[in-house]
Specification:
By secondary structure, the protein is α+β, with helices and mostly antiparallel strands. The protein is built from 27 helices and 39 strands. Helix content is 31%, strand content 19%. Helix 2 packs across helix 25 and helix 4 crosses helix 5.
């Protein structure tokens, strides 16, 4: 058997030249190269006895190609290791950990300003980090390092939101206890974060799964119970009969379970609820004072959905046209349109529905309800979907005009919003109009636009205007000719006077469903007496109520939570009365622990209080909170709600938890290229395709693609245009980039710099592996400038190439412009332009004959928040024995920021013909010489006689010429 060295490198496509039985790929155990498409170039090639037909020459040629490839790989590696980051980075990470460089002491000098910068709690999944995660973490780390150097007490912690569904599902699939997988995942995440040099205070690390932590989550729940903000109610939930469990909304897709694709129905169950609606007005009003993205604040406003309007009662009419005692209450923000209500719509889950159905329509309605309860609220309210409904066979009387109008059931109305019923005004609501047109329901216009004519209505008008067709002598209500707002006020007065309704403020916000039929979550500290079913809170002195160990944490199939299987834990007694009782077996949702974790970081070891008052008063609120926009509503809204409750009971001193929120953009995977194929399998150009979804698509390797104008095409056929798209990183798309691989090839500092240099922090960006080489070269150039060139063996000289000499004015100007720009851009979180300023400085420094130590030391300090490992090493080589983490950040001297040159306008006979760049102290003669040499200006001067020159230093040069005499102007 012939076997090549395991260290040979060659392209995988060369394997295709060998018979199948002669190919063996072996991944390198010690190192994984970062390659597009995650290919591996470490190959062991074996030619066994089964390949005797393969010629020796073929193998020899392959080995030659392998050797050539090896040389290329070594050359690439030499470029990538153009400075010794593989030695520097572990060295300084070890130093920081050993010396606890970034530990924030419990007792600090509170006379100093504070800066609390926080990343949104990560969930430690088994997949570990991908390169999208460090984007926000790097930004917060730059801010933390910057503020430390500015003399702030900095709190920059990290912890884990580790309870929740993913760990439990994995545990069920593998039979591994979720505690084991959670601890393993945390260890992986922690290791990856440390490898990137983030300056977290690891002594403050917390996990929501630790009893010392969730003790206080349970304590907060008890405070909510005391104030009537935690209660039980029967509410519709997503029930999956096949899985035997309740699913969260995010686990239901198109009416089926995300796992397994099983049908999901809406089923009423008794659940714990939190009365977040009691804080709706405060949650809405306090948004105005927050330094948050306006888009996030608007999302919260819409989610809370405060609206002012009226509740109206419509009496149900029986088959004989007689009024019944039953009434249907609707909520509307446009009571002025009551005369235009031509039908009512009930939600499929409306409690009155079954009692009003006609016999003829009963079967149709029940079938429709069965379909509706399989859909999520999101599906039902999707604006683009076709509206469906069924007539109930029953009518109601419009109180304004006495007309009997049909009652329909439709799934676009939700039982959880308003009253679960609406009055439909198709002339003035697009959704109602589409429904009425589909089912031939009458349409009555009652609002005329101030600049229109009601006779021209061909589509609904939802705006305000003047009332028409809106008067009834029978009801005594007449609003014809009134403006909409005045009409609405008049209708509300009439409703309250006649007993048909009242003014009402409504919210879209629903109370928070706070129970999960899961094992891996915080136990709810409540017991229920066996004889009465009364719920009794567990005493605060008995907290934490710990989660029992279970071997079987699969769903019960009955709707009960897995904890119901822990008999010895569930069966208990009321300590006060001694009566038999059972513990609550539902657990809290994953949101619970993440609602208040920012407070625990202030005082993580406190066993007697959630947080010490003095520490909370000093550190609150969080100054900068960075995370994804996907948490804009739920997490941020829930955290604000809990914070306000804690404020009301005196635990916290601020009304809001987060002063400034920043949403970092998404890092998309590398661009993928695809071509469209027709029914016969032939490739066709994307510009000839109307609907991409109608065609099959084939992935095209990047090496077969080229840029042609604004588009991408096949190299072999430039007429065939391709689809170029970048997608969010995911395992299913195979476009995930592991930061470990990037660090191995380029170093952590390069990864940090690249993620900041890709573009503005808040924008989405596309990952490009080749793009990281640019910032890596910048770091390498900085290293070689300051340290010197390596020896032929690759080693670098000790110390630096700086000199102890006074810097020149030019050098001071370059430095202080860089200081000014970097400082300004860090404070504005415009990190990409701060990096550009440092690149410009290095370009300028390469032109200097000497490097004054004072100039380079200041630059190293500027670099340190971005590339802390290299900066620490350079600082050490500059002769400093201690870390630079707390060295004062350089300050720009205004004296060196003034431009030494000015743009001088040049006029010819009083008319501006151009400008020249001159020194501020430029003389008239020098200014005239430069103007004469300028190509745009010289054509006006050549051969002309100069009568006089008017010069105002730094302001203007006016040259007066005699057009009659042509004399060659001397070029001085």
């Amino acid at each position: 058997m012939l076997q090549t060295s395991t260290h040979h490198h060659f392209p995988p496509q060369l394997l295709l030249h060998l018979p199948l039985c002669s190919r063996t790929l072996m991944l390198s155990a010690h190192r994984r190269p970062l390659l597009r498409h995650q290919s591996c170039t470490h190959v062991r090639l074996r030619v066994s006895s089964c390949t005797k037909s393969s010629s020796k020459n073929t193998v020899t040629e392959l080995v030659k190609e392998v050797d050539g490839q090896k040389a290329n790989e070594q050359q690439k590696q030499q470029v990538k290791r153009s400075y010794p980051f593989h030695e520097i980075e572990p060295k300084w990470q070890h130093y920081w950990e050993e010396n606890k460089t970034f530990r924030t002491p419990d007792e600090i000098d509170t006379s100093k300003p504070k800066f609390y910068v926080l990343d949104m709690f990560p969930y430690p999944s088994g997949a570990g980090l991908h390169v999208g995660h460090p984007l926000g973490y790097t930004a917060t780390d730059i801010l933390a390092r910057f503020k430390r150097m500015q003399g702030f007490n900095v709190l920059h912690p990290m912890g884990w939101d580790a309870f929740g569904l993913p760990a439990e599902q994995y545990a069920i699939e593998t039979g591994t206890h979720p505690k084991i997988t959670t601890l393993r995942n945390i260890s992986r995440f922690r290791s990856q974060l440390k490898s990137l040099g983030f300056s977290y205070d690891w002594d403050r690390e917390i996990s929501t799964t630790e009893p010392d932590y969730y003790k206080w989550t349970q304590w907060i729940f008890l405070q909510l119970m005391k104030r009537g903000l935690a209660y039980q109610a029967e509410v519709p939930v997503n029930w999956c009969p096949a899985l035997g469990t309740v699913l969260a909304n995010e686990e239901v897709v198109d009416g089926v379970s995300e796992r397994g694709g099983h049908p999901v129905i809406r089923k009423p169950m008794r659940q714990w609820m939190l009365r977040i609606t009691a804080y709706a007005d405060r949650l809405l009003e306090d948004l105005d004072d927050l330094d948050w993205p306006e888009s996030i604040k608007e999302m919260q406003r819409n989610w809370i959905g405060r609206s002012e309007g009226a509740e109206l009662d419509f009496v149900v009419i029986n088959g004989n046209g007689q009024e019944e005692e039953k009434r249907i209450t609707v909520y509307t923000t446009r009571p002025d349109t009551i005369f235009g209500a031509t039908y009512l719509v009930l939600a499929p889950e409306h409690p009155i529905l079954s009692s009003i159905l006609s016999e003829a329509q009963s079967k149709h309605v029940e079938e429709y309800r069965e379909l509706a309860i399989r859909k999520s609220d999101l599906e039902r309210t999707e604006l683009q979907k076709e509206k469906t409904g069924v007539f109930t066979g029953c009518y109601a009387r419009n109180p304004a005009n006495g007309q009997d109008i049909p009652i329909w059931v439709a799934d676009y109305v939700l039982g959880s919003y308003g009253t679960g019923a609406i009055m439909a005004v198709p002339a003035h609501d697009t959704r109602d109009y589409e429904f009425a047109m589909k089912y031939s329901i009458p349409i009555s216009w009652v609002v005329k636009p101030d600049d229109g004519d009601c006779g021209n209505f061909e589509r609904p008008y939802s705006g305000e205007g003047t009332m028409i067709n809106a008067s009834s002598s029978e009801s005594g209500l007449g609003i014809n000719g009134l403006p909409s707002k005045e009409a609405a006020s008049r209708v509300i007065q009439w409703l309250e006077k006649s007993g048909n309704g009242k003014q009402k403020v409504n919210y879209k916000l629903r109370d928070w469903l706070f129970a999960r039929q899961r094992y891996w979550g915080e136990p709810i500290p409540v017991i229920f007496l066996d004889d009465t079913g009364e719920g009794i809170p567990v005493s605060e002195t008995e907290l934490p109520l710990t989660l029992p160990e279970l071997d079987d944490f699969t769903p019960t199939g009955t709707g009960e939570a897995p904890l119901s299987k822990a008999d010895s834990w569930v069966i208990t007694k009321d300590p006060l009365s001694g009566k038999a009782a059972r513990r609550e077996t539902n657990t809290m949702p994953q949101w619970a622990g993440s609602c208040w974790y920012y407070l625990r970081f202030m005082d993580p070891k406190n066993s007697s209080a959630l947080v010490d008052k003095a520490k909370e008063q000093y550190w609150s609120p969080v100054d900068v909170y960075v995370g994804g926009a996907e948490h804009a509503v739920l997490h941020l809204l829930y955290a604000r709600f809990w914070h306000k409750v804690l404020y009301d009971i005196g635990v916290v001193s601020t009304k809001e938890p987060f002063k400034c929120v920043i949403n970092q953009g998404i890092i998309l995977g590398e661009v993928q290229y695809t071509a469209c194929k027709d029914d016969k399998g032939n490739l066709i150009s994307a510009d000839s395709v109307a609907e991409l979804a109608e065609y099959n698509q084939e992935k095209i390797p990047e090496e077969k693609v080229m840029k042609y104008g604004d588009f991408f095409v096949l190299k072999d056929n430039p007429n065939l245009r391709l689809i170029a798209r970048a997608h969010k990183m995911s395992k299913s798309r195979g476009n995930v980039i592991n930061p470990d691989d990037v660090v191995l090839e380029y170093g952590a500092d390069s990864l940090r710099l690249y993620e900041m240099f890709m573009g503005p922090l808040r924008d989405s960006k596309t990952w490009n592996t080749s793009g990281i080489e640019g910032v890596h070269r910048f770091l390498a150039r900085s290293w070689r400038l300051i340290v010197g060139s390596p020896s032929p063996a690759g080693s670098y000289p000790d110390g630096t190439s700086t000199v102890d000499e006074k810097p020149s004015i030019e050098q001071l100007r370059s430095l202080h412009r860089c200081i000014d720009k970097v400082t300004e851009e860090i404070e504005g979180t415009r990190f990409n332009t701060g990096i550009s300023a440092m690149m410009e400085f290095i370009n300028a420094a390469y032109k200097w004959d000497k490097l004054p130590r004072s100039i380079i030391e200041a630059f190293v300090l500027l670099l340190s928040p971005y590339a802390p490992h290299m900066a620490e090493e350079l600082w050490s080589r500059l002769g400093h024995p201690n870390s630079l983490a707390y060295e004062p950040f350089p300050k720009a001297d205004a004296a060196y920021l003034k431009e030494s040159t000015v743009v001088l306008p040049v006029q010819i006979n009083g008319k501006t013909r151009g400008t020249i760049q001159v020194e501020e102290t430029c003389t008239e003669e020098e200014a005239f010489r430069l103007a004469s040499l300028d190509t745009k200006l010289s054509k006006f001067l050549d051969g002309k006689s100069i009568r006089k020159r008017i010069y105002v230093q730094g302001k203007i040069l006016n040259i007066v010429i005699d057009a009659q005499k042509k004399v060659k102007v001397a070029q001085q």
